[in-house]
Amino acid sequence: MAYLGIPANTMAILKKYNFSFQKKYGQNFLIDTNILERIISESEITKDDCVLEIGPGIGTMTQYLAESAKRVVAVEIDRSLIPILEDTLSGYDNVTVINDDILKVDIQKLCDKYNDSRPIKVVANLPYYITTPIIMGLFESHVPLKSITIMVQKEVADRMQQKPGSKDYGALSLAVQYYAKPEIVAEVSPNYFIPKPNVSSAVIRLTRYENPPVEVDDEHFMFSLIRASFNQRRKTLANGLANGGLGLDRETVNSVLEKMELSLTVRGEALTLEQFAKLSNLLGKKGNS
What we know:
Elements: H1 7-16, E1 29-30, H2 33-42, E2 50-54, H3 60-68, E3 71-76, H4 82-88, E4 95-99, H5 107-115, E5 120-125, H6 131-140, E6 145-153, H7 154-160, H8 171-179, E7 180-188, E8 193-194, E9 201-208, H9 219-231, H10 237-242, H11 250-259, H12 273-288
Parallel strand pairs: 2-3, 2-5, 3-4, 5-6
Antiparallel strand pairs: 1-8, 6-9, 7-9
Helix pairs in contact: 6-8, 9-12, 11-12
């Protein structure tokens, strides 16, 4: 078995199949065994776990996952990688490779079929251009998840764990922190990939909450408020919400801000998740009445 975390083995496979990197899929393959072992360790995978891997590439991390987990379901969008995966994963009988776009896959069906509807763990070296839609798709679909441990652009990982008042705090920070506890567990140099990306990366673990840390009457409405609050960061919260296509007038928004003892000139980036939940509940009640 040729372990692909070793650069020479990765190069040999790429040469064997005359593989061409597809820029549109954001392909950067890991070539460092220490980082791979760290990801497996931080995702706390055991022989009881079913793991969903998004974008296995040539199977580098899949090999490590297969040796640690009960079952691995790997979803790969690039058809040209399927024959390579059949080769590099031929020694494992607990791996299923699906050639599809993860954004179109019914993950609940995968949970039902491969893990008897029990919670799965997600592990991935995500293409940077599609990180946010994948994460939000996993959370918003409410599929049973224990955790998501992913390699992403460091800037995006930082954004996920930012607190109010920071310029990087925004809709992604709030969404991630509503569903999960984010924790950066490793920083990764561009030198550990082939080809080298232009940015630094980080591994972040998102541990799913059994229940969100705040109580909100209408989750969908709260996230609509959050998006409207950050669409134009320089605007006040009142302006953003009144012009956010939510059917809210300035008078209603101002009255709720006053009730919450917030300044009428406050910006969205100053509010905590708890305050957004309260704002959502109060404005939702105003709309219903």
